[in-house]
Input
Amino acid sequence: MRNLDQYNITQAVLARLSQTPDPRLKQIMTSLVQHLHAFAREVKLTEAEWMAGIEFLTATGHKCDDQRQEFILLSDTLGLSMLTVALNNDKPAGCTEATVFGPFHVEDAPRVEHGADVANGAPGEPCQVRGSVRGLGGEAVAGAEIDVWQADADGLYDVQREGLEHAQGRAVLRSGPDGRFHFRSVVAEPYPIPDDGPVGDMLRATKRHPWRPAHLHFMIRAPGYETLVTHVFRDGDPYLDSDAVFGVRQSLVADWVKQPDGSTTLDFDFVLNPVKP
Output
C-alpha cells in the first residue's frame, strides 16, 4: 500500500504483522500497535512531542548500567510494574500478597545462619526480624530460601555506595524445621527512589514526589510453592498512601515495635501458595 494516511495506516501495519508465526507475539504486537496509534490520535501527538518522547526513552537507556535499571524505575513509577504483579499473582485468600520486585536485588547475596546480622555494617538502628513461612493449609515450610534486602538509614542500598566491597542489608537464609526464621538488621526508613535521571525529571514535571515508605524486601522460594516476591512495610510511615511505585498493600503493613533496650522488633509470618498440580 502506497497511499497511507492517518485513517488507514494502522490497518496497514497490522497487515504486516499478520504472518507472525508466534501467536503470543502476534497478539502482543497487534495490540501494542492498535493502542499506540489510538493514543497518538487521542492526544493529537505533534512531531515535536513524538521526538521529546524518543529523547526521553533514549536518556532512560543511557542511565542504565550494571547497578541501576532506569527502565524498571520508569515502569514502577507509571504503575505498570505493580499492574503486572497484580495480573500475575492472583492468590487465594490467606496467602501473602506480592508486590514490586524493585531494581536493587542482586543474585549473589551472602548466605547466613539464623540470628546473623544481615546489616553487616549498614547504618541504622538495630532491629530484630522474626517470622515464619507456612503453606496455605497452615503447614510449616521447612528449608524455604528467604532472600532479604533493604536500604539503610541513609536511604541507600549497598549497590548504590561507591567503593563498598561487601554486601550490606541483604542476605539469604533458610527457614528452620518449624518454618521459622530470625535475623538481625537495621530499622527500615523511607527513602527516595533515584531521581537524578529521566524518571526524576518526569516526577518533577508531574508534581510527584520520589519517596517510598519504609520496607524490607523478601523473595521466598520453596519446592511445591509459588515464589513470593513482596515487601513488609513499616506502619505509621508518612508515604504509605503515596508510594512512588504504587506497591503498598494493607496486608503487608506491620508494626516495628520499640523495645526497652532501644532496639526494635518486627514479627511477620508469610503464607505461600501451593503450586497447582
